[in-house]
Each structure stands twice: as structure tokens, then as C-alpha cells.
Specification:
Strand order of the largest sheet: 3-2-1-4-5-8-9-10
Radius of gyration: 16 Å
Bound molecules: NADP nicotinamide-adenine-dinucleotide phosphate
Distance between the termini: 32 Å
Order of helices and strands: EHEHEHEHEEEHEHEHEHH
CATH architecture: 3-Layer(aba) Sandwich
Number of helices: 9
CATH superfamily: NAD(P)-binding Rossmann-like Domain
CATH topology: Rossmann fold
Largest sheet: 8 strands, mixed
Structural class: alpha/beta
């Protein structure tokens, strides 16, 4: 079983991914800056799925894992990322991070150029991919309900994409699609504010995507 750490897994996306991946037979540790918060979240996730999920500090989770999902808010500080660098050296790191701001009641991209995923890659210097930007956490948390979404993935090489694709497709109802190299991550990160605006302006709750 793959050992997956969800850094910042106490938030909605982390909890949702923990629940779905635990059901997909991965070993999961939810990470947090506060170990007791991680343990509470792990208990919540275990209760939700009936599968054992652990909780620990972000660093301990990063040391233990083979794959880390950075379910942390937009623009984590360099300090946050660099504190995990030695633990994540040589491992696969997946960024679902969406830099986003609200202007006049609507969502806009939070970066003028580049992407959170490229920044993560330049700081961590390991295998980094970007994925899950358009998967609504609220739907992941409805563990009894099926999903039916596409997950666009950027990764520097096809080999890294294949690793992420295997993880994405281990969750029933998610189809991975290759969206090109990491420099294309900005395109994925800006899809989320676009979708949220469409949802807000057209009364669609938890909008997501499927490519047809
Ligand atoms: N929510 C969604 O539907 C969704 C969908 C797709 C992508 N995303 C993206 O996925 C990421 C996580 O989303 P979320 O909604 O779960 O986020 P969130 O609830 O805002 O934050 C997740 C966790 O990050 C930790 N955190 C907060 N500030 C931090 C900091 N300065 N440094 C390090 N850790 C910090 C907190 O955990 P501790 O306090 O326990 O450390 C928090 O519970 C975001 O980048 C978001 O844009 C979200």
C-alpha cells in the first residue's frame, strides 16, 4: 500500500482526499502544524470511512510517506516548504494549491504570473505534480456518494504523470488527464476561480469539470 501524507490535511480538501484515498486502500497520515489537531482530523476521517487514518505533525508525516499531497492554503511561505524539504527529498509531491483572491465579490487568480506548483517544485527540488484543483472537497467528503469528475494533472515528465494518474484513478469516479508540463500549472490553478464564478453566477453548487 502506498504511504500518503496529507500535509495540512485538517482542512476540507485534506479530509476529503484522506477519506477517499483510505477507501482506495492507501495508508494515510493526516499532517498538521498541531499534532492534536491532526489526531482529531484522523479520527474524523476514520469514523467517516471505517478505515484507519493516522494523524501526526506535518514533518513526521512527510518523513514517513512515499507521496505527499500539499493540502495547504495558497502561497505557503518559503519557510513552510523548506522545513519539509529534507523529508520530501526524492519523493512525489502533489500540489492542489489554488492561489486565489476575491475582487468585487468574484474570484480571481492570486498570482500575476507563474503558479504555486512551480514555486513548490523550485523550493523542494523533488518530483512535483499539480492535480485536484477542480475537485470540490465537499463532494469528496460525501463518501457514500459516487464521484464523476476529470482531474487535470501537470507533471514535468510522463513518468511522474503516470504515478499521479495511478493515485488519482485509485479513487472511484476520478479520471486523470495529462495537461502537460509543470509550467502549464497556472492554467489549472486559474480554472478553479473561473469555475467558482460560474457556480456563483449560475447557482451551481460545488462546480467541477468533466472533459467531453
Ligand atoms: N476546498 C476545496 O474544495 C479545494 C478544492 C481544490 C483545491 N483546493 C486547494 O487545496 C488547498 C487546501 O484547501 P482547503 O480548503 O482544505 O484549505 P484550508 O482549509 O484553508 O487549509 C488547510 C489546512 O492548511 C493548514 N494551514 C493553514 N494555514 C497554513 C500556513 N500558513 N502554513 C501551513 N499550513 C497552514 C491548516 O492546518 P493546520 O492548522 O492543522 O496546520 C488548514 O487546516 C488550498 O490551496 C485550496 O486552494 C481546495
Amino acid at each position: 500500500m502506498t504511504r500518503i501524507a496529507i500535509v495540512g490535511g485538517t482542512g476540507e480538501l485534506g479530509l476529503g482526499l484522506a477519506a477517499r484515498l483510505a477507501n482506495a486502500n492507501a495508508e494515510i497520515v493526516i499532517g498538521s502544524r498541531d499534532t492534536s489537531r491532526a489526531k482529531e482530523a484522523a479520527l474524523r476521517s476514520s469514523t467517516l470511512t471505517g478505515r484507519h487514518v493516522e494523524g501526526d505533525g506535518n514533518l513526521e508525516a512527510a518523513v514517513w510517506c512515499q507521496v505527499a499531497i500539499l493540502a495547504i492554503p495558497e502561497l505557503p511561505s518559503d519557510e513552510t516548504l523548506l522545513s519539509l524539504k529534507p523529508a520530501l527529498d526524492g519523493k512525489l509531491v502533489i500540489s492542489p494549491i489554488v492561489p486565489m483572491v476575491i475582487r468585487n465579490g468574484l474570484f480571481s487568480p492570486g498570482l500575476d504570473s507563474g503558479s504555486a506548483a512551480e514555486r513548490v517544485a523550485s523550493l523542494l527540488q523533488t518530483r512535483v505534480a499539480a492535480a485536484f484543483h477542480t475537485v470540490p472537497a465537499a463532494r469528496l467528503l460525501e463518501v457514500k456518494k459516487p464521484l464523476d469528475y476529470d482531474v487535470l494533472v501537470t507533471a514535468e515528465t510522463k513518468e511522474v504523470y503516470a504515478e499521479v494518474a495511478a493515485l488519482v484513478s485509485s479513487i472511484a469516479g476520478l479520471r486523470p488527464l495529462f495537461a502537460g508540463p509543470l509550467r502549464n500549472s497556472r492554467l489549472l490553478e486559474t480554472m478553479t476561480p473561473a469555475l467558482l464564478n460560474v457556480g456563483k453566477l449560475n447557482g451551481i453548487k460545488h462546480p467541477s469539470i468533466k472533459v467531453v
